Amino acid sequence: MAVDDVNLEIPAGKLVCLLGPSGCGKTTLLRLIAGLEQATTGQIIVGGKDQAGLPAHRRDLGMVFQSLALFPHLNVAKNIAYPLQIRGVDHAACASRVDELLQLVRMPDAGDRRIHQLSGGQRQRVAIARALAINPALFLLDEPLSALDAKLREHMQVELRLLQKTLGITTIVVTHDQREAMTMADLVVVMDRGRVLQAAPPIEIYRSPANSFVAGFIGTSNLVRCRRTGVDEIEVLGRNYPAPPNSTRSTAGGRDAVLSVRPEDVALHTDPSDGELQGVVEFIRDLGSSVEFHVSAGGITLLSVAPPRGRPNVSIGQDVGITLHIARAALTDP
Amino acid sequence: MTRRRSDNSWHLVLLPAATLTVFFVIPFTIMLAVSFFQRIEGGFFEPAFVLSNYVRFLTPFFGKILATSVGLSATAATIVVAVAFPFAYVLSRMPRRRQTTILVFILSVLSLSEVIVGFAWSTLLSRTAGIGNLFHWVGIAESPRAYTPGLASLLLGLAYLAFPYAVLVIYPAVSRLDPELPEAARTSGASPLRAFTSVTLPIMRRTIAGALILVFVFTLGAYLLPQVLGRPRHWTLPVHITDQAIFQSNIPFAAAMAMFLLLVSLALVGLVLVVDSRRRGDQS
Amino acid sequence: MIVWLQRGFVGAVLVFLASPLLVVVGVSVNRPKRLLFPPEGFSLQWYGEIFTHDGWTNALLNSAAIAVVAGTLAVAIALPLALYIRQRGGFLGRALFALGIAPFMLPPVVSALGFMVFWIAAGFHGHILATMVSHAVFLVALPLVTISLGLETIDRTLVEAARTMGADSRTVFRTITFPLVRPYVISGFAFAIVLSLNEYIIAYMVAGFTAETLPIKIFNSLRYGYTPVMASVAVLFVMTAVAVFGAVAWFGNLPRLLGAYRSEGR
């Protein structure tokens, strides 16, 4: 997979998530930064220094791999000490740094243990400690949490983010999990087919996605085809609405566009004449903490989410009225 | 009701198992018996129970053969594994098409008869058709000379014979090695060579030990190259086994030597299997 | 730079492996009946002689007959054995597997002597049938290993699915198991044929003077004087091996057949 025409600036001390479906080039980009792969053209500059021609072992970085890549022939302490020993750090300094790191990842007494004796979460921590051993300028993580089960993953996301904030280390995380990106990142970089589609803080990406791919990839969204009918007006499902404020994209008048409406911005009414649109409830999914409604309207299916206490009193097969909170929606390129 | 996977698999296996028993287990039993038999002049052997064939192991004659065999095989195995390990490692990291092409070639060389390997090397090292001639031609040597027979040419031939085998023994293990392990060493600051020696080699040490033993056993079985590329003093145990069996017509002594070779090989191969199963135990 | 170092190393090893073969190819097209390299003149007469000279033709026919019969027999023994081991496993399965690969794992000279004393005792020493059966037993290991590998790749639920649709065990074998395992059977057969063609010591000790095979003939020529036919036969052997293994690689996944799981290079 190739990476093409990527121009990114990573702010110092921040955590950046490279996010995209598998095969989008995010791992390749990370490996280019690490020096594990060579770019044919372009530059990678870290702290003002061009990294071109610098092999991986001369770059000032720590990396956590997808398989974690803990050395099975070394115990926990020796794994963490490996980057220090390579750099000729003396024995005593090495030992005290290892202790410090084990404290940091909250495994103070695990130094003597073998890798295969550790649980998934513990391995994760050892891999993080090893990558941080030399206080690198750059901390890289390639799908670091993918081997963990869902509960532990969410817990580690928070832990990793807090650790990164404490250390203030510039960090790049590759992930395909948008929740993970939303949880941890200062800046989310959405990629697809080797290109960067959008680089922005998580909430900005959520609120005003650059295009329908980003809108669909980040969270769930109703992507509704629409037309721009005037300067400040759009036509959605046969009705005119004022154009949403998040419509800075090149959707000139008379052109097709896509409106991204989040499910929480689709409201249902028991009386069909209450909303601007009318539809029929097809399916209701009660998840306890929220309720989802699938409503067919104008030939498409809209998803609406309501909190359990604000749940509209509707049932399957019922005609309902629909309100779209256009002001909170985003207008994007198709 | 008892749980049964299949209803009729036992009679399926009866014939093959019987074939292997008749044509493999029985021959070895006979060979074991013959090793205690007495040789008769002008014929094959007659039933008896004598230990004289085994007592001959204590003679300097046999000691010299054994020392030659073990020395040659150990040297060849060391050289071969030292080259085959990095070779298999690099091979396993190549694009699949190139890997397949090289593997086809390796397999073809592996399948070559010892006769052909011996002939090819004796040609390559000969005076009129090999590197001797080439060296003379480019001016390194004053006159073309033969580099065979001799110890060096024999070792070269043994290495050639065993190299593809060593690659095929090592290849599965290195191709299953997580490529991120050496990469993790690289991003930790280790140069490629250091990553290889401090991570890849230690992780693969059991594979290497196993390969050393298997290649040792493999070269221990070479029976033809010592005759073609070596001098009579380089003749190994298998050469003497064939020599005793066919030309000296002393099958009982040949059988005793074969039993010895068999037991040594079995013990060494068994050792590899035990180490291997222990490794699997570690991982689970 | 590292990449170039690696390529140089692999290249050098491949040159080492190829150089004796290249010299043999050169020698085989010599015009004069002498061992010369670089060759003097160009002639394919020594290839022709394999098929026209009685001694060589006879050896060729013997070798081919032994290889085909031994390969077929080896597969016929290995297939039911592998099926049984896969289905039942257990101690008996492991013991049978060990029995199957042992003749191949031992030093060939040991197996050869074992076969020799056996055929002397059975009264078939010197008979081509003895060579065929000995080779079959010696080579069972190859189809046994490839077929076992193939059976391991078949998902057991496929068999169970066929059962739920009403197939009895014979039908399951005919319609599911065998079609899926067939490439592995064929590769095992191919491996066995090539190795039988090249095998020397067993053929020599079992029936070396009566049923002369090509390797025996080459070695005898090597001992009693040179003829370029040796070189042309050797080239024929190398080409056969390359063709057979090339075909196996073409129709199957060779790295996987040799035990590599991560066969995709990055």
Task: Walk me through what this model shows.
- The complex is a heterotrimer of chains A (334), B (284) and C (266).
- With 334 residues, chain A is an alpha+beta fold.
- Helix content of chain A is 25%, strand content 29%.
- In chain A, a hairpin with a 4-residue loop joins β14 and β15 (291-297).
- The longest helix of chain A is centred in the middle third of the chain and has 18 residues, at 150-167.
- Chain B has a single domain, classed as MetI-like fold (Orthogonal Bundle).
- Chain B contains 13 helices and 2 strands.
- A two-stranded antiparallel ribbon of chain B has the order 1-2.
- The two termini of chain B are 33 Å apart.
- Mean pLDDT of chain B is 84; it is low at 1-7.
- Chain C has helices at residues 2-28, 45-52, 54-88, 90-105, 108-122, 128-139, 141-153, 156-164, 169-198, 201-207, 214-223, 229-251, 254-257.
- Chain C has a domain at 54-226: MetI-like (MetI-like fold, Orthogonal Bundle).
- Chains in contact: A-B, B-C.
Outline of this structure?
Chain A has 334 residues and is an alpha+beta fold.
- The CATH architecture of the largest domain in chain A would be 3-Layer(aba) Sandwich
Radius of gyration of chain B, in Å, reads 24 Å
Query: How many domains make up the coordinates of chain A?
Result: 2
Categorize the overall geometry of chain A.
elongated
CATH structural class of the largest domain in chain A = Alpha Beta
SSE order of chain A, one letter for each helix or strand: EHEEEHHHEHEHEEHHEEEEEEEEEE
Number of structurally distinct domains of chain B: 1
Given as residue ranges, the uncertain stretches of chain B (5+ residues, pLDDT < 50) are: 1-7
Largest sheet of chain A: 6 strands, mixed
Give the CATH level 1 class of chain B. Answer: Mainly Alpha
Continuous helix count of chain A = 8
Point out poorly predicted stretches of chain A: none
Topology:
The complex is a heterotrimer of chains A (334), B (284) and C (266).
Chain A: E1 15-19, H1 26-34, E2 45-46, E3 49-50, E4 61-64, H2 76-86, H3 91-104, H4 120-132, E5 138-142, H5 150-167, E6 170-175, H6 178-184, E7 187-192, E8 195-200, H7 202-207, H8 212-217, E9 222-230, E10 233-236, E11 239-242, E12 256-261, E13 266-269, E14 277-286, E15 291-297, E16 300-306, E17 319-324, E18 330-332
Helix pairs in contact in A: 2-3, 2-4, 3-4
Chain B: H1 9-34, E1 38-39, E2 45-46, H2 52-55, H3 60-92, H4 96-111, H5 114-124, H6 131-138, H7 151-176, H8 180-187, H9 192-203, H10 205-220, H11 225-229, H12 237-247, H13 251-283
Antiparallel strand pairs in B: 1-2
Chain C: H1 2-28, H2 45-52, H3 54-88, H4 90-105, H5 108-122, H6 128-139, H7 141-153, H8 156-164, H9 169-198, H10 201-207, H11 214-223, H12 229-251, H13 254-257
Helix pairs in contact in C: 1-12, 2-3, 2-12, 3-4, 3-6, 3-7, 3-9, 4-7, 5-10, 6-10, 7-9, 8-9, 9-12
